[in-house]
Fold this sequence. Notes:
Order of helices and strands of chain B: EEEEEEEEEEE
Number of helices of chain A: 0
Shape of chain B: globular
Largest sheet of chain A: 7 strands, mixed
Low-confidence stretches of chain A: none
Distance between the termini of chain B: 41 Å
Low-confidence stretches of chain B: none
Number of helices of chain B: 0
Shape of chain A: globular
Strand content of chain B: over 45%
Largest sheet of chain B: 6 strands, mixed
Distance between the termini of chain A: 33 Å
Oligomer: heterodimer
Number of strands of chain A: 11
Mean pLDDT of chain A: 93
Largest interface: A-B, 29 and 28 residues
Structural class of chain A: mainly beta
Helix content of chain B: under 10%
Amino acid sequence: DTGVSQDPRHKITKRGQNVTFRCDPISEHNRLYWYRQTLGQGPEFLTYFQNEAQLEKSRLLSDRFSAERPKGSFSTLEIQRTEQGDSAMYLCASSEPGTAVSEAFFGQGTRLTVV
Amino acid sequence: AQSVTQLGSHVSVSEGALVLLRCNYSSSVPPYLFWYVQYPNKGLQLLLKYTSAATLVKGINGFEAEFKKSETSFHLTKPSAHMSDAAEYFCAVRRYNQGGKLIFGQGTELSVKP
């Protein structure tokens, strides 16, 4: 399978713990995006990378959230001191370099439950 | 600021009936517009996109959408619903100078009755 893959698919954690999610984009896609989706809502943009550079962060991304893409390939999203409000589906997407019409390909997401 | 509004969080149609899912956008300049579908336990999949080449856009699985600038709309239609069309549908907008990020509507769940 050469699509966007995310790991893990599900994560249950206790409030206050740290969690880290991984996203492997489609190879040769230089843009990588993170979104968050809560029940009954559309995905909300969190941040995006072009190669290894993080070019934009949403105001939704509090200082407890950090994302990296160290070699311009896979990316990690870490949430520190998790809160119940962090429970959501975290989606990763990647797209080819170039224009704004490039299709974004999405992974299946990581569902986080904070108890 | 851009936004996307999908009218109706849930739409139910009978198999074989017309599907109409509504999407209106708010943008200071005409944006690029997309429809995505999300099946249970699956990732978002692109149905179609408007990139200013043609106002009537055809997508996969028999879906199409028409961009109407005067109405700031990009409604999704399919002439005849199939049971396999039951899913969540999202309209999204992207500005050409905003790095490719998508702004999504809240989604419309489509149910298809036999």
